[in-house]
Amino acid sequence: PGGFSAESVRQDFPILHRTVNGRPLVWLDNAATTQKPRQVIEALAAYYGAANSNIHRGAHTMAREATEAYEAGRAAVADFLGAAGPQDIVFVRGTTEAVNLVAQSWGRANLGPGDDVLVPVLEHHSDIVPWQMVAKQTGARLVPVPLTKDGEIDQDAYRDLLSSRTQLVAISHASNVLGTVPPVAEMTALAHRHNAKVLVDGAQAVAHFPVDVRELDADFYAFSGHKLFAPTGIGALYAKPELLAGMAPWQGGGNMIESVTFGETTFAPVPHRMEAGTGHIGGVVGLLAALNWLTSLDREAVAVYEGDLMAYAHEALAGVPGLELIGSAPDRIAVLTFTLAGQDPAAVADWLDRDGIAVRAGHHCAQPALAHYGLESAARASLALYNTHGEVDQLVASLRRLQESA
Ligand code: PMP
């Protein structure tokens, strides 16, 4: 419907035309990583084939070109997130590194005994472990925010847990386990009333709906390029300028200094102060191409299409005998996590793989969230804009055959 056709978008993805185990690939592991359009693959080939150079130093033509490409990528990320400008964007390896940067730079300076960091039980390990580490280092307390049965963050409990002790709240903009989309703007406003900062993990959100960090009033916002049709190894952290300006570097090295003597180093202004060493220049080139590709689509029509596909998949899966979908909150995107009676999730994934269908089985880097449902492992089918109703039919047919063969 609308101005979007999954069938025509599929033509941009060479990998979707391969076979796996003799069957056409059905890629339903998009929450782990998305595939790359040829626009990204071609941008990488062009960069490495004709434009490769380090940046910011050598005073030669190609160094200047690479610097321009790198900084154009930063400006594109700022636009994509609704940030005021490129100076608010730090390049990182991905969401995990962004959270660790905030924990080690902002957290170490601002947390101490008597302080709380609130993290919903639903969160990815990358929103739990870095805060657990910095809590141990600083004496702060890591406080889990419970979930409702439906898999939503318990908003009453959240309100009760917020206090003058709260220094930071870390929330995913969309859950990688359930696809739930919490009311981030409201939760942020509540946290701000207690003078707490909010870090939003956008890893699962950015590929599915437009984000505006200033509308959310997020203090920090992180995402990974590879879940957004871009290469692995590149991602971005947005930080409010007044926060970033006060943050000390978390890694030292080249590119992040103003002057160095053995006695003392003075640092470059942000964001460069946060980017020690040679960055992933090719990754930024690929990310820029991915953002240009994605934003050239009618994103409202994409969201309508994905919503329709999700509803279709939800209903079709619910009809498979013995299949139980985990979490039933209505506001969710792209992720269907399930168990199949009498089947180990790993065996389910293995069976589907023989039909060329890629899903993930395991704890999805969210052991506390699965434990909430009394599970250690589950199967997860996660959708992207290039998936089709026909692919959902193949998933359902394969699961039905598995149940019949059991
Ligand atoms: N947060 C969420 C919600 C995720 O889904 C993921 C990836 N599964 C991450 C963080 C970590 O992303 P990365 O491994 O790219 O750093």
From TrEMBL:
Reactions catalysed, semicolon-separated, are: (sulfur carrier)-H + L-cysteine = (sulfur carrier)-SH + L-alanine
Enumerate the UniProt keywords alphabetically: Pyridoxal phosphate, Transferase
- Top enzyme class: transferase
Where's the Aminotransferase class V domain?
26-395
The enzyme's E.C. designation:
2.8.1.7
UniProt cofactor(s): pyridoxal 5'-phosphate
Q: A single GO molecular function, which one?
A: cysteine desulfurase activity
Q: Name one GO biological process term.
A: cysteine metabolic process
CDD domains of this UniProt entry?
Answer: SufS_like (cd06453)
Highest taxon, organism lineage: Bacteria
Describe the family membership recorded for this protein in Swiss-Prot or TrEMBL. Belongs to the class-V pyridoxal-phosphate-dependent aminotransferase family. Csd subfamily.
**What name does the UniProt record give this protein?**
cysteine desulfurase
